[in-house]
Design a protein that fits this description.
Helix content is 26%, strand content 30%. The protein starts with a helix and ends with a strand. The chain is built from 5 helices and 12 strands. The chain is globular and about 50 Å long. A hairpin with a 2-residue loop joins strand 6 and strand 7. By secondary structure, it is of the alpha+beta class.
Amino acid sequence: MERRNFLQSSVLLPLIGINPSILTNISKTSIDPIKPFLLPNQPALENKGTMDIRVWVRSGFTNGLFSSVECAVAPKIMGPAPHGHLELDELMYVLEGTASVLLGDEVVEIQAGGWHMRPRMIKHTFFNASEKPLRFIDMYFNQPFEEYLEAVFHQLTPENGYPSGSPKKSEEIKRLSEKFGLIRYDDAQDQKQQLIKEYGLKNG
C-alpha cells in the first residue's frame, strides 16, 4: 500500500468506526486474492411472525474481511438482550420499516434508507417498535458472525434436538458466545424487560 493511501485509510477508518487493524487483514489478500462473485436477487425475507435471517455475503467469499446478513423482524418484536462484541464491528442498513437501536442507554431510530454503525465494545441491541415489518442488512467486519447467527436461528432448533430453554441449547449458545467474543452484561435481561414493557414488545 502506498504511503499516501495508508495515511488516508488510517485517518478515515476510525472516523467511520472501523478499527484500522482491518488493514492487516486486507494486506493478506495479496497472497490469496478475493475472487469476484455474484449473488442473484431473491424475494424479500419473511419474518415468519417473529424474526429470521438470511446470509448474503459469507466471510469465506472475502478472505474473512466482510460478511452480511438480511434480517426480517415482525412488528413489535424484541431483538436479543443488550450485548457487546470484543472484535466485531457492525454496520446496519435499513431496507424497510424503522429499526430501533439501543446504544448504551440511548435508543435511536433508523428509518428505511438510513445507516447505523455499531463499533465493538459498545452495549447495544435492536427491536421493532413499530406496527410495520422491519428489514435490514447487517454487515460484519473482522469476524464470520454470520456463522453464529445461522447456528442460533437455523441449527439450534427443536427439530434438531435443541428445545427452547433446554440446558443443551443454553450450553451450545454459551459455547458459541465465547467463540465469537460476545460480551454479556449483568443487567442485560433487566434492560431487555424494561424495553419490552416500555415499547409493548414481544420476545422474538
